[in-house]
Amino acid sequence: MSGEGTTDSYDVIVVGSGAGLVGAYAAASRGLRTLVIEKTEYVGGTTAYSGAGMWLPGNAAEQRAGVEDGPDVARPYLDAIVGDDSPTALREAFLQAGPTLIDELEKNPRFGRFFWQGVPDYFAGRPGSLPQGRTIFPENLDRSELGDLEPLVRRPLWTERWGVDPGSEMIGGQALIGRALLAFMETGNGTVLTNTALERLLVVDGAVVGVEARSEGELVTFRADRGVLLAAGGYERNGALRERFQPGIADEWTQGCPGNTGDALTAGIDIGAATDLLDESWFAPGLVVPDTRPVFYTSVWSGIWVNSAGQRYLNERLPYDRAGHEMLRAHRSSHVSHLPTHWVFDQRQLDNKRAFAGLPVAPQVPGWFDVDKFLAAGVLKRADTLEELAEMIGLPAGSLTESVERFNGYARGGKDEQFGRGEDPWDLMITHMAGAHTDGPNPCLGVIDKAPFYAATIVLSDLGTKGGLKTDEHARVLRPDGSVISGLYASGNTMAPMSGRIYPGAGGPVGSSMAFSYIAAVDMADGGR
User: Fold this and answer.
1) Where are the extended beta strands (E) located within 252-338?
2) 10 Å Cβ neighbour count for 108?
3) Helix, coil or strand: residue 213
4) Where are the beta strands (DSSP E) in 148-189?
5) Is the distance from CB of 17 to CB of 38 less than 8 angstroms?
6) Cα–Cα–Cα angle for 468, 180, 238, rounded to 5 degrees
7) CB-based burial of residue 414 (10 Å sphere; 0-12 exposed, 13-18 middle, 19+ buried)?
8) By CB atoms within 10 Å of each CB, which of 83, 197, 472, 522 scores lowest?
9) Count of beta carbons in the 10 Å neighbourhood of residue 311
10) Cβ(61)–Cβ(108) under 8 Å?
11) 36: β partners
12) 8 Å CB contact between 233 and 512
C-alpha cells in the first residue's frame, strides 16, 4: 500500500507502524515525504493490542474533564519515582511535548477528541501523584471509515487468539492506529509498505542516510534526506536476546506483537549506538490459559498469590508492572521459586461474574474462563480442601493452610498487616470494577473458605521489553561517548525509556512512544541531521 508519488527516496523513514505512526503523521503533515516500513502484514504493532491509554500530563482532554495537571504537577512525581534511571532532559522533553501533541492531533478531525478516564497513577502518595489519574483515550472508530485501509490494521488480541469477531467498531489501540493511519495517508505525503523488514541502516560519513530492507523477499534500498526513526518495538519475541539480557524470562510469556524481535535495536547497535536498561520490560503478571500465551492480568479480585514455599509475598492488587517487578525481585533474591506463582482462590471467585475484571480480555471473550477446559489442560487445579490442593501443586504440608488462615484474619479484621492490600486508589479501582468484599471493613479483602478451592498459575509476562537505544531530548540516537548519530532517531520500546525502570501510570508506554515519535518528527522537520 502506498500514497501518491512513491519513490526510493524520502525525507523521513519510520521503521515500525505502532505509535510511531503518530510521528509519521507529524512529519507528513509538515510536508515531508514520509515512508513507513512494517515487518509484518499488519499495521499497528503491540499498540493495536492495547487499550490505547495515553499518559501525557496536562493535555486538553484532562483540562476538559476538570483535572488540574500539567508539567509542573507531574514533574515532581516523575522525579521521585524515576530518579537517576533516565536523564532529566528526557523527562522534561516528554512533559513539554505531551500537551502540544494532543493539541495538534485534535486539530485533525481524523483523530477526534480524546477523553479522560480516571485510572489512578501507579505510585500513590508520591509528590505529584494523582489518585484520579491522568490517562486519556481515543474515541472509537467505525471500521467503514477506513475503507480499503481497514484490513491492514492489526486485529485485536481477542480476535487473533480466540477468533472472536472484532465488531464493526475499532476500540482502544485499534481505534488509535486506524485514526493515525487515515490521517497519515490523507496528508498526501505518506507511504506505507507492509511485509517490509529492516535489514540494516545505511551510513555515510557517520550519518544515517537510509535503510536497506527486505520487502516481499526482495532486498530494497530507501534513502532518507532528513532522518530515520526507529519505532519498531522491543525484542520480546527474540529468545536469544531475552536470554542474553533477561535470563530466566521466557519469550513465550510475552504479550508483545509477533514482529517484535529487536531488528531495529540490533541495527542501531551494529552502527555504534549506545543502549540502556536492556534488562527491563513493561512487566505484568500473566495467567496461564489453555492453548495460547498467558493472559495479561492487572489485579486480582479475590484469593492470594503464594510462592513454592506456600507463602504470600506481595499485595496481589499492585499495579501490574509493580507486581511483575516484585515477582522478579522476589524470585532472584530468594532460594524459593516465585516463577511461576500459585494463585489460590475459592468458589467465590467463580461465583462472582465480574471477578475477572482484572483481565482486559475478559469483556471481549464471554465465557472464556471455562473451568472444565482449564482443569483438563492442567493449568487449573481443584480440591475440596486446602491440604489436598497444596499436595496437588507441590507445596509444603501446612504452609498453604497457614497462609490462607492468616489472610482470612486480615480480611475479617480489615487490614492486610503484611502488604497493605486495599490502601491505595488502584486497589479500590478493582473493587469498583468487580465488586466489594463484605467479610470485613476492607472491600479489597475477602475470606477464602468456600470450597472447592482452586490454584491457577501466574507467570512473569510483559507488554514488551523497554530498554533500547539511548537518545537525547530530541529523540536523536547517541553513541556511548554521548555524541549524536546524525540522521537517526528512536522512540517507543526501541528507545531506552524516559521513565527508567518504572511505569508511572496507565498509558505510559503508548504516551511516551507517541511523544518521542512526535519530538523526532518535529526535529526532522526543523532540519534534521
Assistant:
1) 275-276, 281-287, 295-296, 304-306
2) 16
3) strand
4) 169-170
5) yes
6) 30
7) middle
8) 83
9) 21
10) no
11) 14, 192
12) no
Task: Name the class of domain 283-462.
Answer: alpha beta
- 177: cell is 492506529
Rounded Cα gap, residues 432 and 427, in angstroms? 9
Q: Given CA atoms 403, 409, 413, 417 in this order, what sign does their dihedral have?
A: negative
* Amino acid identity for residue 178 in this structure: G
Counts for the chain of helices (H) and strands (E), in that order: 15, 21
Q: Tell me the three cell numbers of residue 102.
A: 494532543
* Distance (Å, whole) CA 441 – CA 439: 7
> Do 439 and 346 contact (CB within 8 A), yes or no?
no
Which option is the CATH number for 9-47+141-276+466-525: 3.30.300.30, 3.40.50.2000, 3.50.50.60, 3.90.226.10?
A: 3.50.50.60
Per-residue pLDDT of 245-282, as tens digits, reads 999 898 899 999 999 999 999 999 999 999 999 999 99
Inter-residue long-range contacts of 366-374, CB under 8 Å, 24+ positions, other chains counted: 368/162, 368/289, 373/290, 374/289, 374/290, 374/456
Which residue do the cell numbers 526510493 mark? 8
For the chain, the structural domain boundaries read 9-47+141-276+466-525, 283-462
Q: What is the rounded distance in angstroms from the CA atom of residue 74 to the CA atom of residue 8? A: 43
CB atoms within 10 A of CB 378: 10
Instruction: Assess contact for 129 and 121: CB atoms under 8 A.
Output: yes
Instruction: Give pLDDT tens digits for 375-395.
Output: 999 999 999 999 999 999 999
